[in-house]
Every structure is written in C-alpha cells, then in structure tokens.
Amino acid sequence: MRIGTAKNFVFCPVLLLCITSTAVAQLSFRVLDRDVIESRLKDFSRKNDQREAIMKQLFLQSGCKPDQLAEQPVKRRVPPNVMCVVPGESQDVILVGAHYDHADVGDGVVDNWSGASLLPSLLYSLGTATPHHTFAFVGFSGEEQGMLGSDYYAKHLTAEQRSRVVAMVNLDTLGLGPTEVWVTHSDDDLIRSIGLVANAMKVPVSAMNVDQVGTTDSESFAKFKIPRITVHSVTQETWRILHSDKDKLSAIRMDDYYGSYRLLAGYLAYLDGHLGTPAPNAAVNNKP
C-alpha cells in the first residue's frame, strides 16, 4: 500500500450488511491447509526480483500451466509484472491482483507479500474444472514507486480488453486483523457480494475506509471505470506497521490471515458463478 503521512489517515469502520434472497447458490471451491498458506507467507525475500521468481514457482505449483504463465516488462530497473491467466468459458475477465514489491524499510511481509503470496493459492482454490469467467492473477511490481506495474498493465489493455474486465479484486496488506474492505473505493455490487459470502461462511468482514491514506493498485483501473474492490486489514491501531521496521512476519495474525484466504477463495467462486446476476444467499461447500 502506497501511504501518505500520519496526519492524512482517515478511518471509518462500518459493519458490512449482507443482503438476503430466497434463492440459494452452492459455492464449491478448494482450500489449502493452513500450514501451506503460512509456509508461502514465510517464504519471502527482501529482494523484489527474487519475490517475482518465487511467485512464478508458486503459480506453477498451484496448477498454472507453463503457457498460462507470463511476465510483463514494466520499466527499466523495475521487475516485471508476473501473471497467470486461466481461460474460462467466457472471455469476461475477473482480475485478481496484488503488488509484490515492498518499501525500503522493513521486510514487506505485511505490505504486501501477504497479498501477493495468496494469488497462487487462490488460483488453486478455483479447482480443476474450467471456470465460467477467465481469471487473471497478476502480481504487480513498482506499487511503492507510484503503482508503476498496475498502471502499465491497465494502460496497455486495449479498449476491448478493458470492456471485458468485469471485476478487479485487489489484495493489499492482509493479516493484521480480520478482513476489511475499502468501501469508498470499491464497487457497490462487489461489496454486497463479499458481505453475502462472509455471512454464509460465518467469517468476519467490515468496512475500513482509508481515503486519505494514499493509494493502491485498484485505482489504476478505476480511471478506466473498471469495477474494483480493495481488500485489506489496516486499522487505526495497526497502520504504523506499514513502511516501518515493524513490517515483519511477527506482525501477522495467522488466524485472521487464514480466514482472509478462505473468505477470498469463497468470494472468487461466488463471483465466477454470480457476477452480473441478482445476488442470492450463498451456501458453502469448501473442500481440501
């Protein structure tokens, strides 16, 4: 997360309300064991180019085929974006992104290896069947330098490609506590959907707006009117960890972090089946 100064932080915690419907949707998705999620989080490097290499390895381990894995050069002296694109029955795209670079101070585990290292695990959670939507999992580089990677990615999509991106799910700074959503910088339908899934899975999610904190990769897509949602875990009590020597593995609350992973896995399954249709209740069937 690209942050400003302390005086610019504005927090507005609001409980997300879940909508209800008489229809019931069955969510089916896979989940990795907690020890795998923790191991991937612990397998970080303080060097951004090594992080990119680790992400490629994790993508392949999680079922990304070699011809689905790609690098996108961004800028000289900045590592490339790394992505895995899983074709679906439709050409409409659900983009799931997280920046893997980190600030010069601290280990950058919270901001944002916590988000980047989940991308391969969320790919695994889709399962082996062909999804309805095409999924693009993208590890962005250069976020801390001004969202270089996400800005480059968004600008180099054609108008037709942009029109096909029906949701951009941005993961930034997870595991400091329960899952939060930056509501004022997120699409209403995507907010309602994550609240519904959280209710069905009985896991917490709430709104925490950080409008004047700084910015994050989702905003590279907002300028093109692509629906987006930013999922994070920052609160007024924890923001000081970011861009400090406190940003290390010990800052992560593993119960909350694994809860965020499970929620996001269910959320992507829900979006794949229901994006663009009226939102029903969600029954859950998550399996190892």
SSE blueprint and pairings:
Layout: E1 2-3, E2 12-15, E3 24-30, H1 34-42, H2 48-61, E4 69-72, E5 81-86, E6 93-99, H3 109-116, H4 118-125, E7 134-140, H5 148-155, H6 159-164, E8 165-171, E9 179-181, H7 188-201, E10 205-209, E11 214-215, H8 219-222, E12 228-232, H9 254-274, E13 281-287
Parallel strand pairs: 3-13, 6-7, 6-8, 8-12, 9-10
Antiparallel strand pairs: 1-11, 2-10, 4-5, 5-7, 9-12
Helix pairs in contact: 2-4, 4-9, 7-9
CA-based gyration radius: 17 Å
What string, H for helix and E for strand, traces the elements in order?
EEEHHEEEHHEHHEEHEEHEHE
Portion of residues within helices: 25-40%
CATH architecture: 3-Layer(aba) Sandwich
Strand content: 15-25%
Within CATH, the superfamily carries the name Zn peptidases
Count of separate DSSP helical elements: 9
Biggest sheet character:
9 strands, mixed
- Secondary structure tally: strands: 13
Strand arrangement across the biggest beta sheet: 2-10-9-12-8-6-7-5-4
Q: Regions with pLDDT < 50 over 5+ consecutive residues? A: 4-24
Average of the residue pLDDT scores: 89
CATH topology label = Aminopeptidase
Give the count of structural domains: 1
What can you tell me about this protein's structure?
The protein is built from nine helices and 13 strands. About 7% of the residues have low confidence. The two termini are 31 Å apart. α2 runs parallel beside α4, α4 crosses α9 and α7 packs across α9. It has a single domain, classed as Aminopeptidase (3-Layer(aba) Sandwich). With 288 residues, the chain is an alpha/beta fold. It is globular. The protein has a nine-stranded mixed sheet, sandwiched between helices. The chain has a two-stranded antiparallel sheet with strand order 1-11.
